Amino acid sequence: MESPSGDPQRSDVIHEVRHEKPATDGGLVAWLGVVGAWLMFFITWGPAGSFGVFEAYYKSRMLSSYSESTIAWIGGIVFPILFNALEPKVGFGWTIRVFGFLQLVFGLAALGLLLQMPQKSTKPRRLFEWRAFTEIPYTTFCVGCFCQYLSYWIPLFYLVTYGRSVLGMSDAMSSYLLSILHGSSAVGRILPNLLMPKFGAMPVVFTSTVMCAVLLFAWIAIRQSAGFIVFCVLFGISSGTFVAANPVATLHPTITPSLTIAGERLGMNWLISGLGTLLGAPIAGTLSRPDNGQFLHAQVFTGCIMVGAALFIVNHTFHQFGNRLFVILKKKEKKRKMEYRFLGRSGLQVSAISLGSWLTYGGHVDKDKAFACMKAAYDCGINFFDCAEGYADGEGERIVGECVCKFGWKRNDLVISTKINWGGSYGELAANNYGLSRKHIIEGLDASLERMGLSYVDLVYAHRPDRKTPIEETVRAFNHVINMGKAFYWGTSQWSADEIATAWRYADKLGLIGPTMEQPEYNMLTRTKVESEFVHLYREVGTGLTVFSPLAMGLLTGKYNDGIPDDSRLGVSDDKFVKLTKSEFGNEEGKKMLDKIARLKPVAESLGTSQAILALAWVLKNKNVSSAITGASRPEQILESVKVFSILPKLTDEIMEEIDNILGNRPTPYTSRFI
C-alpha cells in the first residue's frame, strides 16, 4: 500500500546501492572472468586430484609410479607430468615448492581477471552467516554435503594402492585408475544439465548420492581388476553428478531464500564440504592397513558415511515432496475466482486485487506472517505485488524477494512493482539519494533489484512528483531503465493530471514511452482525482490505475465506528500519515465522516457482506481501476478480500446511487483537455 503524501519515516541505517555498471552478456569481460575461474580450478582442483595417491606416502617416500590423474580437470594432467619430471631431479620438497610458486603466479593472474567482472554491490559481505544454521533445510543439506565429501575423497586417495596391493595390478595400470575415475566424472557433470530441468536439483543430488553409497559397498566384494575398473567408471559418473548438482541444489528456494545471500550460502556450503574432504582420508587411514592390503574397515566406514549423506539429503527431498503433496490435496478445495484486468491500454494483465507492503512487511508484521500473507495471496490468484524503496527502509522489498525465492514461484507468473523517490537512507549523503534525477532513478532501481534478488521489475513508479528535477530528465531516465531491461513499464504515483500530461508531451516529442499507469489514493472518501481530474487521461492516453488505500487505512471496514481498537493500524502504527488520520477523529468533520461510514453498514448487510468488502467492491466497480492495492497482516484477510468478486455483480446502479447519497461527495468531472 501507499502513504497519502509526504516523505516516509526514515532511519539512520545506511545502505549501499549497486554500481550502475551493467552485467556483462558474453563480452570480453565475461570471458576474462571465465578464464579467471578456470585458472582457479587449474591450480586448486588440479593438484588436489593429482595427489589422490598421497596414501602411497606411508613409507615416508612418494612412489615413483604416480597417477596420470584426471581428464576432468586439466590441471590434474599438467601437474602430475610436471611432478614426474621434477621429483627425480630435485626431490619431493623442491617439487612442492615449484608447485606453490606456480599456484601463486596463476592465483594472482586469476585474481586480476576476476576483478574485471562487474561488482554488483559495494556492501560488505559476511564471511559466515551463523543464522543460516537455525534453518533446518540449510543445516541438513550442509551436513549431507559434508558426509558426501567425507566419503567421496576416500576412494580417490586409496584406489591406486588398493588396485596394486589387493588386486595385484601393475604400477602402470593402477596409476590409470584415477584418470579413469575422473574422466568418467566428466560424463557425470554433464548429466545434471539434462536431468535437473526435468526432475529438479534435489532428486538428482539424492539419486547420485544413493548410487555412490551402493557402489562403495559393492567395492568390498570386488576381487577382479576388470570389476574394479567398472567401479571406477560408475563411481566417477555418480560422484561427478552430485559434485555438479550440489551448487544448484544449494540455491533451492528453501535452502537459500534470497539470491542476495546466495554467495554466502554457497561459500559456507563449500567450506563445510571442504572440511569433509580434509577429514575423510585421515580417518580412513586409521581404519586400514594399506601396506597389508587391509581395507575392509575403511570401505565399510566410507559406505556408511555416504548412506548418512543420502539420509540427510532425502530428509529435505521428502520434506519438499510432502509440501507438494499437501498443495495437490489442497487444490481439491474450491478455488476462489480471481479477475484479471489490463493495465490501462497496455497488454499487461494484473489481478484486480493486489498486495502491498506499506506499513506491513518489514514493519509491524514479522517475516513469517508476511510470507504467509503472500502465499495466501498467490494461492488466491493474486499476481501483482507492490513495493517501494522507501517502505521500511527497503525491508519490504527484501521480504517480497525472499518470499518469491522461498516458494519457488515462476517469475513470469508475477507482476512486481517498486517505486523510486525516497531513498535518502541508502547513502551517506542525502543529496542524490532521493528524488527523480537520472542518477537516483537508475541507482535507486538497481538497489531495489538487489534487495529483492531480481533482475527486473514489471512496473516502476515515480513515487510522488519531484518538482526540482525537469520532467524531461525523469522521462528519459525511466525510458533508460526500460531499455536496459530492468523494468517493463513506468508510471507515476500521486501526480496531478497536468504533471502526467506534461510527461506524455515530452515522451511524444522525444519518441519515448510515456507513463502507463498512475497510483493514486482512491476510496469512498477520496474521489476527486480519480473520478474528476483524470477523466481525460483515460480517454487520451489510456492511463491505468493501481489505486492504494481502498479501505481508507481501515476506516471503511467499520471497525472504527465505536473507537480505535488497540490492535488496529491506527492503534499501533507510528507512521505520521496514520497519526494525521487518527488526529482527525476528534474534530467535527471526523465525526461526520464516521457517521457516514456507519450508515453504510445496512447497505453491506443487505448484500450479505461486510463493510470492508462493500468498500473494496465499490472501488473495483470503477472500470478505470486496473487493480486495488490491499494490505494484510494475516492470511485470513486475503481470503476475505477475494470474496469481493461475488459482490461486484450485486452493485447495481441503484445501490451505487444509494451509496453516493450517503457519502454526498460525488465530484464533477473536469471538462478541459490536457494533452
UniProtKB/TrEMBL annotation:
Keywords: Membrane, NADP, Oxidoreductase, Transmembrane, Transmembrane helix
Domain NADP-dependent oxidoreductase: from-to ranges: 353-662
Annotated GO MF terms: oxidoreductase activity
Domain of life of the native organism: Eukaryota
Keyword Acetylation: no
Keyword Membrane appears in the UniProt entry: yes
Pfam family of the protein (one): Aldo_ket_red
InterPro entries: K_chnl_volt-dep_bsu_KCNAB-rel (IPR005399), MFS_trans_sf (IPR036259), NAD(P)_OxRdtase_dom_sf (IPR036812), NADP_OxRdtase_dom (IPR023210)
Residue ranges of the TM segments: 28-54, 66-86, 92-115, 136-160, 203-222, 228-249, 270-288, 300-321
Family per record: Belongs to the shaker potassium channel beta subunit family.
Protein name according to UniProt: NADP-dependent oxidoreductase domain-containing protein
Organism: Gibberella zeae (Wheat head blight fungus)
